[in-house]
């Protein structure tokens, strides 16, 4: 565990907490894409199949449980909570899951570290995580007024990915045999998807203006 | 040491 990895995980955790804060205290999920949240729940469900078979550390298991629990409860809140679900605008969140899920599944069947069920599912989860933010980014572009919490949520998610890249660079130079092409390439793609968002996020921050993405 | 297919990242 290096500082970049820990900072990345903490940023990821912070993003989840920001979203839960919005849902719990403001009782709103306005501007949040249910599609993206459902994809994340699927990402964690398929990636953490090893949770009971491969013990890595207490930290690892705890974080897995947090990400699994939070992602499924967020989906539950947006879909089923009496008050929260009212703020969900289905007509704006139109991205189709299977446009992302099916190509990722096919790619996982072709490109994986080992052709076993668990490894194919793991590769699938890596590919899917890389593109799972797309429905959220599309929704942001359609939203006239992006509230601060939603902006911070997406920013923290992007920051988490950028920190993971630093973690890989660090690990590559400090560990022997540390080469993971699947995670590296997908992680790079995933981070690049945030580039546009980052640009407008920093612009709005610099100019002290409300965040708004151009159509 | 070969890490095999142990995925130690989250």
From TrEMBL, chain A:
Belongs to the ERD2 family. One of its GO terms (biological process) is protein retention in ER lumen. InterPro entries: ER_ret_rcpt (IPR000133). GO terms for cellular component: endoplasmic reticulum membrane. The chain crosses the membrane at residues 55-78, 98-115, 121-140, 152-170, 182-202. The keyword Acetylation does not apply. This is ER lumen protein-retaining receptor. It comes from the Eukaryota. Keywords: Endoplasmic reticulum, ER-Golgi transport, Membrane, Protein transport, Receptor, Signal, Transmembrane, Transmembrane helix, Transport. It is found in: Endoplasmic reticulum membrane. Residues 1-31 form the signal peptide. The keyword Protein transport applies. PANTHER family: ER LUMEN PROTEIN RETAINING RECEPTOR. It is a multi-pass membrane protein. Its main location: endoplasmic reticulum. GO terms for molecular function: ER retention sequence binding.
